[in-house]
Amino acid sequence: MRLEAKTVLITAAGQGIGHGSALACAREGARVIATDIDAALLAALAEKAPGIETHVLDVRDDTAITALAAALPALDGLFNCAGYVHNGTVLGCDEAAWDFSFDLNVKSIYRMTRAFLPGMLEKMNRDGTSASILNMASMASSIKGFPNRFAYGATKAAVIGMTKAIAADYVKQGLRCNALCPGTVDTPSLRQRIAASPDPVQAEKDFIARQPMGRLAEVADITPQVVYLLSDESRFVSGQAVLVDGGVTI
Ligand code: NAD
After folding, report:
1. Would you say domain 7-182+219-243 falls under CATH 3.10.20.340?
2. Which atom of ligand 1 is found nearest the CA of 15?
3. Domain ranges within the chain, ordered by starting residue
């Protein structure tokens, strides 16, 4: 199995891409530690896949992150998946919205990495293994511009910059760090965004229209890339913003 003997922690694993990734990593033999702010979603995941260990974790809570890192064994893989889509232009983004987006989408990754990286480095050094950090960015507005993704695009571009900095700092110690940049994926939060728009039918058509393959991504279109980037198969890949976007950026 592709993640045999690997311990992998995933944030925002309660639904969407994080949830699918937790199941995919477990299928490939990883010990999966699934975290999310929502206890009910985690309980449903644990019922579906009893081998997956779950912990309620708010990635904006540094004290909780530090406590969890101290309680868990060292990781081989960390997938920082948590993130939020702010809808609006620069004029529609007040300071509170900007700060919230940066706190959840960017600073959370800084917090998680500072808490879990020392254990990952120590384990690699001790056991001669390699380790991987995967950070959730996006195709939307960090790679290709889209309307009403001002704060979102800025945060996801920051994730890519942070990823490259971490990759450069630890490449000689065997740690890889990459950013994942999906196109539009059919997840519960995307459905919420469609439902909240003034014309939901048209909003869904618009999302699909920007996908040259003529459909939204399913979570299962994204998770093989997550498994690959967390596994040793990607041992020569670091510092990359990896696009899985259905051809939007061809
Ligand atoms: P989602 O937005 O449907 O679910 C997000 C999950 O995050 C929920 O389970 C929620 O409980 C959890 N969460 C919210 N706040 C949290 C916090 N403070 N701490 C921990 N968990 C928290 O899932 P999704 O659409 O798959 O998005 C996941 C990631 O993928 C995000 O970073 C998003 O920006 C990114 N992304 C999504 C798409 C897409 O089209 N869906 C495309 C590109 C990138």
Report:
1. no
2. 9
3. 7-182+219-243, 186-216
